[in-house]
Amino acid sequence: MIMTKKLLFIFPLICTIIGLSSCNSDTPDKPDTNTETIPASELTKDDLLGTWEIYNSEKQVIKVKEDGSESAYPNFRSVDYDGFINKFYIDSKGVYTFENSNVLDELIDKGTYDVKDGLITMNVTRHNGRDTSFVNTETISIFYKNKEAFTVFKYFTVDGYKIRDGRSMRNIEKAPNIHPNMEKVDVKGKYSSLLGKWEVYDYQLLANGVYDATYSKETLAKLKGNTYTFNDEGSGKTSVNIDFRDPDNDGVRITGKYPVKIVDDIVYYFVDNAVDTLGNYVPTAPFLWVTDWKKRTDSSTNKEFDSFVSFNKFRTDARPDIIYEMRRFLRRID
Question: How far apart are CA 77 and CA 155, in angstroms?
Fold first, then answer.
């Protein structure tokens, strides 16, 4: 089985893991907000002023058939943009300005904006380090009255598909830890429970919920023994030592110590020296996302051990009707 290109469509407005509970529980965390909302049609550009962080992304893919009928594929949470920042402010000349940046605080887009009839119109003047000029419009779906969070959607078509790209953002100056209407587990608050060395001991791939035993076994043989060691660097800084080979990405090898950024249940580690099997540098932005961490029992020894599951879902361009689900099981070994 070969999986190549992930189905990924850029969302201009905001285009710019490890989910843990405790060592003994997988009870998720669900910080919420006041659910009272403002009708999108009543919003103005002043309502968006502030710094907003993406905490949830979802993508719906709809196949448009030759006869004009449509078939919607299931959507799911995508974590590729968690932690990206969208800032709306009034500059020194009194101009309403927006900036979008990634988790490394690198500027992606900048320009002016307006809000009218539930639409955000962005006149982009700077994109990926270059001057430019184009316009994006996004639809506001939900905006909480306390101005703690809001959700926007982008609609477009690509090669016979309709795409509905959605992002939810929270105001990090008012409510930096909320994620309304969704359950997560609190990594940032429980990071000390993760400190130490962990190794991959199992792997599962599911396609639309069906376990692929052959591919899972072959991949486990390549992954088994890969390790992550999480460190507390003090002053609120964290890092991870990694010895890892990625069988799903041309055998890319990642070794060394890297800084870490935690966004809810996502742990990003920033790698600048990943190489493929030929020794060529490969740009990469790896992360871990775990949905389950608890005590498990070794069937051969009947002893309990700490374990979590690094989780991810994706589609490919070749088969957008299939949702692939990867599960990497890690256990503490120190």
Answer: 17
> What residues make up the domain containing 82?
40-171
Is residue 33 included in any domain, yes or no? Answer: no
| 39-59 confidence digits (pLDDT tens) | 999 999 999 999 999 999 998
Over residues 240-269, the pLDDT tens digits come to 888 877 766 666 677 888 888 889 889 888
**CATH code, 46:** 2.40.128
Total domains, the chain: 2
Could you say which residues of the chain have pLDDT below 70? 1-31, 33-34, 247-252, 273-285
pTM of the model: 0.81
Strands (E), the chain: 50-64, 70-72, 76-78, 85-90, 96-101, 107-116, 119-127, 130-143, 149-158, 161-171, 196-207, 210-211, 227-234, 237-246, 252-263, 266-269, 287-297, 304-314, 324-332
CA distance 265 to 288: 8
Same domain? For 166 and 206 the reply is: no
Q: What is the pLDDT of residues 167-205, one digit of tens each?
A: 999 999 999 999 988 888 787 777 888 899 999 999 999
Give the ranges where the chain is alpha helix by DSSP (H).
213-223
| In contact, 313 and 325? CB cutoff 8 Å | yes
Cα angle 200, 204, 208; round to 5: 150
